[in-house]
Write a structure and sequence with these properties.
alpha/beta
């Protein structure tokens, strides 16, 4: 039993990438585009990792090895980021999440983000989506020593909320995110991103295919 399995939730702490906004898909698509510019094919099975750390340089090293001596790192980065940023112009909150945020406000629930990404990434995207001011607390991966599945970023969010783990519920999209929330003692709802199979997040306290599947209050009630 996780420490958070008693008591009503007073806060909901969301992961960001792949959960609030599907930047996991835009990341993969930008890298797949860049591989295609060198006449190569990138498979999703070779792309995603089982932790929340920054693997950007590892990905460039893999691409450089595949391309060979003609690889131009500066050109590749500039072209990939431009393509990714264009994809982000059309990116909104994931299905049902805007409704969950609105519902949370009506229920008097406090909202936070606990992400492996840096704070400026969070503020940029949440600001563009028009929901940044709905979150009382942001906790970023650049503020903690260990990335998910370690609980550090969730513990930081709880500290900033001045709540114990029993009073907050996490919402995640990956197995390592669920593990991080549980390691912090929190109950966890999993809504896997398009590249994560449902069985990968079966350790979550509740698994949904989309936030539109249930209202937030109904989802939280299933954890009590």
């Amino acid at each position: 039993m996780h420490a958070g399995q008693a008591g009503a939730a007073r806060a909901v702490v969301f992961d960001f990438d792949g959960l609030l906004m599907d930047t996991e898909s835009t990341s993969f698509l930008s890298w797949r585009y860049e591989w295609s510019q060198w006449g190569l094919t990138l498979r999703a099975a070779d792309f995603f990792v089982n932790h929340g750390g920054d693997v950007t340089e590892d990905r460039y090293a893999t691409l450089a090895a595949a391309v060979g001596p003609r690889f131009d790192r500066a050109l590749s980065h500039r072209r990939r980021v431009a393509h990714r940023d264009k994809l982000h112009e059309e990116l909104d909150l994931a299905d049902g999440l805007r409704e969950w945020l609105d519902e949370a406000a009506g229920l008097g629930l406090r909202l936070a983000v606990a992400s492996s990404s840096p704070l400026d990434w969070l503020t940029t995207h949440l600001g563009r989506a028009g929901v940044l001011d709905m979150f009382e607390v942001l906790a970023g991966g650049d503020e903690v020593g260990r990335h998910k599945p370690a609980p550090d970023v969730y513990q930081l969010a709880l500290d900033r909320l001045t709540l114990n783990c029993a009073a907050a519920v996490a919402v995640e999209d990956t197995a390592h995110g669920v593990a991080a929330a549980h390691a912090a003692g929190m109950r966890c709802i999993a809504i896997p991103n398009p590249f994560v199979a449902l069985e990968r997040v079966r350790d979550a306290d509740l698994v949904l295919t989309s936030a539109s599947q249930l209202r937030l209050a109904a989802a939280l009630s299933q954890l009590s």
